[in-house]
Each structure stands twice: as C-alpha cells, then as structure tokens.
Design brief:
The complex is a heterodimer of chains A (about 120) and B (about 400). Chain A is an alpha/beta fold and about 120 residues long. Chain A has helices at about 10-25, 35-45, 60-70, 90-100, 110-120; strands at about 5-10, 30, 50-55, 80-85, 100-105. Chain A has a single domain, classed as Response regulator (Rossmann fold). The longest helix of chain A is centred in the first third of the chain and has 13 residues, at about 10-25.
Chain lengths: ~120, ~400
C-alpha cells in the first residue's frame, strides 16, 4: 500500500511540482494551502507518513504548523521536511526547534527531495 | 545731473517693470529685474566700474531671492500654456506636505495594485502552464508506456509470430510435396503396368510365332494327307481347319500385339508427361519455398523496423517526458518571484507609512532604519544580496538538504 505524504504550501504551482515528483515515486499525496489547512488535512487523513511544508505562508506559517503538529498526540511522530526559499541559519534553527527533521531550500531537485523522503518517511 | 540720471533710470526701470508685469512675470522677478536695470543704467555714470560690480552683486542676489518665485512662474506658465488653469498651490508648508503625502500614498497604492495584478497574472499563467504540462505528461506516459510494454516482449513475440507464419506456409508446401509423392507412387504403378505391357507384347509375339508354326504344321499335314490319297482325305480336312485356326490365331496375336503396343505408347506418353509435370511441380514448389522465405524475410524486416521505430519513439518520448518534468520543476521560479513581489509590495506600504510619519516633522528616516524597513521580509538570497550591495546576485541554486 502506498504511503501518504502531506504537502503544505501556499503556492499551488509548487504543490503541483512536488506532487508530480512524489506521485511518480509511488507515494499518495494530500495537499494543503497553509498551516491551518494542513492541520485539518492531518485530522481528516487516516494515516500520514511524512509532511513536506513551506515556511512563509498566510494564515499559519510553517514553523507554527510544525510546532502544533509536534504537540498533537497522534501526529507528533510524523517527520517533517521544511521546503522553503528561506536559507538563513536562524530560520533553520527555528525549524529544528519546532521539530522539523530536514530543511531544504527551494528550488529543489526532485531526486534530492525523494532522497530525503526515503530517509525520513515512517515505515 | 546725477539726480536727473537716477530719476530717468528709475522711471525707465519702473516702465520696464510694469511692462514685465504686464507680460505676466511675477512682481518679485520684476523687482529683481528692475533693480538690475537700475544698476545697469548707472553703468553709464561716472562710477561705471564700481556701479557695474555692485549692480552685478545686487542683481544676482535679487534673482536668487526671486528664484523660487521664478520656478513657480515657470510652472504656472507651463500650466497656462498647457491649458491647466486649475493648478493651484498649497497655501502653507503643512498643506504642501499633506498634498505630497497624498500623492505618495496614491503612487504607492497604484504600484501595489499593479504588482498585485502582475502576481495574479503570473500565478494564473503558471498554473495554466503547469496544468498543460501535466496533461502533456499524462499523454506522454500513455505513449511511452505502450512501446515499453511492446518492447519488453517484442523480440520473442516477433519470432513466435514469424515462426508460426513460416510453419503454416511451409505446411502448404508440404501438402504440395504430398501431392507430388502421390503422383510419383501412381506413376510407379503406371511404370509397372508399362513393364507388364512389354511382357504382353512378347506374349503376343509368341502367340504369332505359334500360329506361324501351327500353320507350317498344317501345311505339312495337308501334304501328307494328299500323299496318303483317299485314306488321308479326312486328315486333309483337319489340316485345313488347323491351318485356318492358326491363321486366325496369328491374326489375333497380331492384333493383341498392336493393342499392347498402343497401350505401351500411351503409357510411355503418360509417363513422359508425368515426368514433365513432376519436374515443373518441383520447380514451382522450389520457387514457392523461395517466395515464402523471401516474404517471411520481408515481414521480419518490416516488423523489425516497426519495432525499432517504436523503440525509438519510446526513447524520444521518454526524453521529452524528462524535459517536460524539468520544465515543470523550473516553474518553482514563480514561487520565488511571488515572494519577492510580495515583499516589495509590503515594503512600499511600510516606506510610505514611514515617510508619512517623518515628513511632517521634517526629519528624514535614519539610513539604518530605512534599510531595515526596506529589507524586512526578505526570504531569498537574491534579496539579501541587494541589501548587502552585491550586484547581480545569481538566483538561488538547489541547495543540499540539512538534516536535523
């Protein structure tokens, strides 16, 4: 059975590109446009094996989203990859403190993303 | 004299000033020009050189004093020439500042609206392009998958089909061979019959020979009967009958021989024709086998070529597919552009708000505060490069993943 990955990004074009890479690799994908939608999608999904999240988003940014995911009893073990234009170390440390497992700066290469996904995704 | 000169000059200055004022030149400038004219008139007096020097200084000062009014006069004149009679000047500096801020606010609003429009258009266009590329990719997946599946068993499938075709066609040839063999067997029987007819001909010859000998014997018997006289008369009758019978037997033997010869000729003719047919059939069968071999070869070549083309199309389709995917990945630029434009949008609002606060106080923002305000919300390295005055910073390249 294919594993499910949640993509949280306010840019629909970027979601499309990430989805294309993940679906080609055999993953099921759920999409959300910001942190709030991401939390709702997590609640609605039966099982999410990994999250790919942007940082700068309207309504709820990625750092807040990850923080809330990590406080959730059911989803706190879901690994999170931050995929963002932000490359500053200070921001990376914020992501690490929030509970993200990896930080990837856009633009990403699909093989690079798939490599990180395969390393972190839940069994 | 000096007094009259001065009075005359002042009168001339006054007249000139009035004429300038009539021309629409503002009073301040007219006064400056009049003062300059006064001193220029004095240039003809005794103290020409000192007056010229002093007049130059006073004239310059007067023009400097009148410069703002001169600029305003120029602006009004331009407006008048342009037919803009409604332009009005603010009455006080505060009003001027308020008007300036209002214009700035209008400009900021216009700029941000345009930026928003550009963002929307770019986002919509990018989404359309991505959707289009996605559909192309789906089609390519279908096209590329078919040759891949075909190529997987193409060699085996091709050989199997060709072998089947060749077997079936060779089966037909085998049937022909069967027909030829049957005819050969039949012709063998005919040859045996032909041999038997030869024996029959010999036997007919033997019959003819026996008839001739019987005839000779009957002649001898007739002679002996004649020699015996009346007592041999009955024997002479027998001899005559024997002679008639031998003649008939000879005739029958001859006819048998003729029939057997005819039969033999027919048999020989049939054998000759059969041999010719056999030879022709063998040639036809051989040609048919060659034709079948050639046709199977052509079909094999055609199928091989079709397979090659299908494989080539599949490979090219795969290349196009990878290129389309790369193009789609390249559309990540839209996200970066969106964020940069977003930041510019916010920055314009912040800058205008800052200026709105600063202008009434007459204090410009501090350089570091201003820079911080402009760079607030930077997310990309290209933006930070501008802040750090690094010209033409390259776009962010794909970075390594940082694992925590």
């Amino acid at each position: 059975m294919a594993k499910t990955i949640l993509i949280v990004d306010d840019s629909s074009s970027l979601r499309t590109v990430v989805k294309m890479a993940l679906v080609r690799a055999g993953y099921d994908v759920i999409e959300a446009g910001d942190g709030k939608e991401g939390l709702k999608a997590l609640e609605a999904a039966a099982k999410v094996h990994l999250i790919v999240s942007d940082v700068n988003m309207p309504n709820m940014d990625g750092i807040t989203f990850v923080t809330q995911v990590k406080q959730h009893p059911r989803h706190k073990f879901v690994p999170v990859i931050m995929l963002t234009t932000e490359g500053q170390d200070a921001k990376k440390q914020e992501g690490r403190a929030a509970g993200a497992k990896a930080w990837m700066v856009k633009p990403f290469n699909p093989p690079q993303l798939l490599d990180a996904v395969s390393k972190l995704i839940l069994p | 004299m000096d007094k009259y000169l001065s009075l005359g000059a002042m009168q001339a200055t006054s007249d000139a000033g009035a004429a300038i004022a009539d021309a629409g030149i503002p009073p301040g400038v007219a006064r400056g020009g009049a003062m300059l004219a006064l001193w220029m008139a004095a240039a003809g007096a005794v103290w020409f050189d000192q007056a010229l020097l002093a007049g130059g200084c006073w004239g310059g000062l007067a023009l400097a004093a009148a410069y703002p009014q001169l600029r305003e006069w120029q602006r009004r004149r331009r407006n008048r020439l342009a037919g803009n009679h409604s332009a009005s000047l603010p009455a006080t500096p505060a009003e001027a500042t308020a008007a300036l801020l209002q214009r700035l606010d209008e400009a900021a609003s216009t700029w941000t609206t345009h930026l928003g429009t550009a963002q929307t258009q770019m986002r919509d266009a990018t989404e359309q392009l991505l959707q289009g590329f996605g559909e192309i990719l789906d089609q390519l997946n279908t096209i590329v998958a078919a040759p891949e599946q075909a190529a997987a068993g193409s060699v085996d499938a091709r050989s199997a089909v060709l072998e089947q075709c060749e077997t079936q066609l060779r089966g037909l040839i085998e049937n022909f061979h069967g027909f030829v063999r049957s005819r050969e067997e039949m012709m063998g029987s005919v040859r045996s019959l032909s041999g038997a007819s030869s024996g029959l001909r010999d036997m007919a010859e033997d019959v003819a020979k026996l008839a001739r000998q019987t005839n000779l014997l009957s002649i001898n018997a007739a002679i002996e009967a004649a020699r015996a006289g009346p007592s041999g008369r009955g024997f002479a009758v027998v001899a005559t009958e024997v002679r008639r019978l031998s003649t008939e037997s000879g005739e029958t033997g001859r006819r048998i021989g003729e029939r057997v010869s005819e039969f033999g000729e027919h048999m020989q003719s049939a054998l000759t024709q059969a041999a010719e047919h056999t030879e022709r059939d063998a040639r036809v069968i051989h040609q048919s086998e060659q034709t079948i071999h050639r046709v199977v070869g052509h079909v094999d070549e055609a199928v091989t070529e079709l397979n090659r083309r299908a494989t080539e199309l599949g490979e090219r389709g795969q290349i196009v597919k990878v290129q389309v995917e790369q193009l789609m990945v390249a559309f990540q630029f839209q996200d970066r552009v969106h964020q940069i434009v977003d930041q510019v949008n916010n920055s314009i609002h912040s800058a205008v708000a800052c200026l709105q606060q600063a202008l009434p106080t007459g204090r410009s923002p501090q350089a570091d505060e201003w820079l911080a305000l402009l760079s607030a919300g930077y997310t990309t390295n290209e933006q930070r490069a501008v802040g750090s005055k690094v010209a033409n910073a390259p776009a962010q390249a794909a970075a390594e993943t940082t694992f925590f």
